Amino acid sequence: MLEYRWLLTLLPLPLFIYWLLPPYKVQEDSLRLTFFSYIAKAIGVTPAPGAVVPRTNWIQKLLSSLCWICIVVALARPQFIEPPIRKIQSGRDLMLALDISQSMETPDFRTASGGRLRRVDAVKQVVGDFIEKRKTDRIGLIVFGQAAYPMTPFTLDHKGCLEMLKQIDAGMAGPQTMIGDAIGLAIKEFDQSDAKQRTLILLTDGNDTGSRMPPKKAAEIAAQRGITIHVVGLGDPQATGEDKVDYATLKAIANATGGQVFHGENRDELSKAYATLDAITPQDFKTLSYQPKRELFMFPLGAAVVFLTASHLIMVILSLLLRLFSRRSERADPIESEVFKVHL
Description:
alpha/beta; six-stranded mixed sheet; rod-shaped
């Protein structure tokens, strides 16, 4: 394929120049003398080489034509169109907001062997498995406690997300739980997204303890921006005090955005909650097809250099052969050669 096919109209340009422009000529006075060498020798003058009228042969014309054709083809930018490449791109941005307040230090999750596991460690394991399954979703990560912090923007680099997830720990963001601020930060992150489907998964083990933006108000704003919030509550709903999970507020947040609330009293329930989320937020795909183009102009350009070099080499060889033949003729009959040269 040629990118600029119209440049092929330049192919007959040398013929137009040859036909329309007059040849370059230089006229000088001259005198023909028979036995020129003898006269020059008698008066003590060394003759200089005479003028040479350049003449072309069919080899020069052929190689010059091929050279011009290759240059024009190179200017036309030949390309090789490779087979189309299909890229799978997700139509969803998925934000994970994880509570890492001081209460996440509580070791009330049990392992399969009967041991105890901190809430934050159980969450990191389950969320890590969830991230690995969402291979084609752009995933962002927010952590919150007394304040909310973005850990990773929306990205397909899930390995990077997992590395950042390993580094978080309970209490890093302060002892309190600011759910409303976490939702507000997620809304700001989604403002930079063009995805049609936007999902926020909020995971917390407590109740809101003084966010600058009330959680219900933040959920209403999220609903206006087309963000669906699913909430996972950790801990025993029958507990008392500040560590009690405020499922009423969490349900109001989810209902305002069309999401759902899940209970994660232990690691198994937490795994079931994320398995359900994985089912209700199916992966959408967008197939993008494009064909890579590989430039090939260097091949005709290289051929033009080869033809040009070959033309000069052939002319040099022919010139050397003609000189050698001329010298042998002069040695055979010097007088006849001089007369022949003068008449030429």
